[in-house]
Description:
Residues 30-382 form the FAD dependent oxidoreductase domain. Helix content is 34%, strand content 27%. By secondary structure, the chain is an alpha+beta fold.
Amino acid sequence: MDLHSGLAYWIVKNELFDYFHPLRDDFVIDVAIIGSGITGSLVAHELCMAGIPCAVFDKRTIATGSTAASTSQLQYEIDVPLCEMMDKVGEKTAVKAYHASLQSITDIEEVFHAIRVNPDFKRVSSVYLASNRRGLGLLEREYEVRIKHGLPVEFLDADALLANHRIEGPGALKNREAAQMDCYQAATGLLRHHIKQHDLPLFSHTDIVAYEEKKGGYTLLTGDGKAIRCKYVVIAAGFEAGRFLPRQVMDLNSTYALVSQPVEASQLWPERSLIWETAHPYFYMRTTSDNRMMIGGEDVAFKNAERRDRLLRWKIKRLERQFRRIYPEIPFTVDMAWCGTFSSTRDGLPFIGPWPGKKRMFFALGYGGNGITFSMIAAQVIKNKLMGIKDERERIFGFGR
Length: 401
């Protein structure tokens, strides 16, 4: 299935990683990573840096699945607000999940600084808008619980929101710990680096269609009959991981995104913040390094790719109206638009680690709106698991929670 359609901005902005290297013969490796997007590339990075032999396999051109359709925002906030998550998973687990997500942004920044790859990573503020009076009540509760647990947050009332961000609304939560980047450039930059520095084997256009558990590992079978023998396998294939899961653990949604034509930098909103809101489905917006505006949302339950794609033109109009509701004075002319499919979970948390009873098959499933930060956590947890290092995040994000 096509994970996205339309004209995804990152594929236009960047030179395509034109890499064609299907697996031609049987292959043996310690760790096989399925998926070459931002999750798989971060897993490969952590394993390569730890000296663990690994290889990456993808059925598509490298990093052209969900990663190419990402709007690449990095926030410590999770789709489910902390005050509501505590009711779902318990206060201790919810608070640790939020703190882990906060730390993940810094960890991502340090990864790219260390390897001297710049995927347009930039620290920006985040403004979480109350869409209405009900949303304001949610933000008031959320503010209190974040303050209680030492999470960075400011409360903006209506006057402060207008004075500081030129937005008319009931109020907002703000923090200065968010970031944004070019997700496609990040994934391909990581893979290029480790191909050069660590001889990372990377196989494109190699579809894993079946697997067989063996004593001491797995045999993965490709669509054209090749066998990959490995001690461990990491599933970093997003919602396409379903063939490896005993049961479905996520819901599928369709989402929509637009990029504007460039404008003068002086025309953009204050601080070029990440802006999102409490309404469901929520609307969000960011800027790009070339002074475009990227907006998205209008999520609906996924039925099939054809229905998702048919809605694109209508969703473009709705997203344009949403933007003009917030910043009517900023010119916004659509230059590119796309739609994609993503997964979400009941509690807003990803699934990381082994399925109970499958000790050698690890899942790195960064479901939800904060998939990139979850991907960093997954890469670290899986590396630690392979090295015999205890990591309490495995319990927080594991299948047994």
